[in-house]
Amino acid sequence: METGYSVFSQSLQPTCCFLFFSFTLSFTIFSLLLFTLSLLKPHCDCEICRSYRSRSWSPEFDNLADWYTHLLRKSPTNTIHIHVLNNTITANPENVEHILKTQFENYPKGRPFSAILGDLLGKGIFNVDGDSWKFQRKMASLEMGSISIRSYAFDIVRSEIQSNLIPLFSSVSGEKDSVLDLQQVFQRFSFDTIFRFSFGLDPNTLQLSLPISDFVMAFDVASKLSAERAMSVSPLIWKVKKVLNIGSEKKLKKSIEVVKSLAQEVMENRRKIGVSTQNDLLSRFMSSINDDAYIIDIVISFLLAGRDTVASALTGFFWVLSQHPEVEKSIREESDRVMCPTKELASLEQMREMHYLQAAMYESMRLYPPVQFDSKFCQEDDILPDYTFVPKGTRITYHPYAMGRMERVWGPDCFDFKPERWLQGGVFCPVSPFKYPVFQAGPRVCLGKEIALLEMKSVALSLVGRFDIRVATPEKALRFMPSLTATVRGGLPVIIQERKR
Ligand code: HEM
User: Which residues does the annotation say bind heme (predicted)?
Assistant: First the structure.
């Protein structure tokens, strides 16, 4: 028989449990916050840390990267340390070579970075260190170095330009008051291209009339939310949300599930038609690896690495070009000289002959690198070539955006856009990759560099040849959003006019 007391105590149980749970949760969150605050060293009161915390740099500089550039230029070693972030930042080529090559093993991506993209990228090449990275790098280098994959990529790029990009530009050309966001167009273009290259299917996001597929939407959400983890004040915030499966973390989990299960479906269909007849990355990796989840991780790494980088590079290129009509004119002259003026698409051989175009591309990425900064984590205490001491556990960042603006590296005209600085007797001459680490450098240099340049040059040639593209608000400086890849806040609105030839 139930006594009054037992009924009372039973009715109290859920309340007690709730109170206990709430107390434990609040206590845990509070302790974690205290721990985070202690890690952030908010007590550091040096001028740089004060300015970082209060954002007092912002009235004077358009972007955080411009403020860092200013600090790095002022520093005698071109290296600075932000105490509140435990982050050493360098724009010194000798230091960059030390981190990316000479002491490569001591500067892995590290756990903090892998955790951010870990759920989406799993064990994919972009997100791992050590033996797993070495294995994938070897295999992927063999594939990416083959002539057949380059011509496969080139065919995709040409077909996307002809079937989607040019028709879209023609449709808005000359339209009164018609403004196109060039950044968004390039984001869609580069997504379609890298998706076809990776999975052998065209998501057609440039065909504005078609609905966006579930895969594309889920991938978009998953990559945005993963990148947003990096922007949160402390990793503990997203980690707690993940454990509790709430808010953005719940959404992220769902979208990753959609991406992985649709990728699995594509694999199963591919198996039915036979992988040996296909050229895409997925089919290529399926012929040499047996683990489905691992293959998906690898291919998704490529998708992420090759997606917004190319779009960002093209956006920066057309921005500087619209400010330098003399460079645009020289590109057109070179293109008319190398190929027949009425032809729209250059062949691979013709593109190789266009040294001025290559120089203009490199020069625009010197000033507007798609990856503005990139970080590693120091494993063991170390001393950099400029004698900066780096304690174990420090985040160390090389900063291509600032490096492109270092007088010591590029001379007093470092802020000027001058493709000629890359040419000797009309021939393109590359510089040390540690001076220009736009594609990173050393053993982990970008695997898609050649394909990216091919894509960018093809797009630039076909658009510059056929259209006049003018930025709608040329007087406004570029302001970037906090993101893994340089993304212009508000996009790049342009006005398009088909040229009379
Ligand atoms: C202008 C365009 C591009 C730029 C500026 C660029 C830049 C970079 C940078 C800076 C890294 C090093 C990132 C890090 O380790 O944190 C990287 C890695 C990588 N990139 Fe690119 N990338 C571009 C296009 C592409 C494309 C189109 C692909 C694929 C076809 C690609 C595939 C990769 C891969 C797989 C890695 C990882 C390499 C490794 O960890 O060993 N990239 N890229």
Answer: 446
Atom 39 of ligand 1, residue of closest alpha carbon: 444
Q: 3-state class of 380 per DSSP?
A: coil
Contact 371, 486 (CB under 8 A): yes
Hey, what domains does the chain have and what are their CATH numbers?
Answer: 49-498 (1.10.630.10)
Pocket probe mutation, ligand 1, options 398, 446, 449, 458, max atoms within 8 Å of Cβ: 446
List the beta bridge partners of residue 468.
497
Q: Which of 320, 323, 315 is nearest to 481 (CA)?
A: 315
* pLDDT tens column, 94-141: 999 999 999 999 999 998 889 999 999 999 999 999 999 999 999 999
CA–CA distances in Å: residue 156 to residues 164, 390, 410: 11, 45, 36
**How far does residue 465's CA lie from ligand 1's centre (Å)?**
28
pLDDT at position 44, please? 86
What predicted TM-score, i.e. pTM, was given to this entire model? 0.90
Neighbouring residues of 380: CB distance < 8 A, sequence distance ≥ 6:
106, 392
**pLDDT at residue 14, rounded to an integer:** 56
Query: How close are the terminal C-alpha atoms of the chain, in Å?
Result: 98
Ligand 1 atom with minimal separation from the 125 CA: 40
Rounded to whole angstroms, how far apart are CA atoms 145 and 447? 9
Residue 5, pLDDT score: 43
Residue 413 burial (C-beta neighbours within 10 Å; 0-12, 13-18, 19+):
exposed
Q: Is the CB of 401 under 6 A from ligand 1?
A: no
Q: Return all residues near 392 (Cβ < 8 A) that are at least 6 apart.
A: 378, 379, 380, 381
Give the three-class secondary structure for 388: coil
In whole angstroms, give the CA distance from residue 475 to residue 495. 15
Distance (Å, rounded) from C-alpha 3 to C-alpha 26? 35
Task: Please choose, from the candidates 223, 468, 227, 166, the residue with its C-alpha nearest in 3D space to the C-alpha of residue 329.
Answer: 468
β-strand partners of 487? 481
pLDDT band at 13 (very low <50, low <70, confident <90, very high): low
Residue whose Cα lies nearest atom 11 of ligand 1: it is 446
> Nearest to residue 196, comparing CAs of 168, 163, 166?
163
Ligand 1 centre to CA of 447 (Å) is 6
pLDDT value at 160 more than 50: yes
Ligand 1 centroid distance, CA of 36 (Å): 31
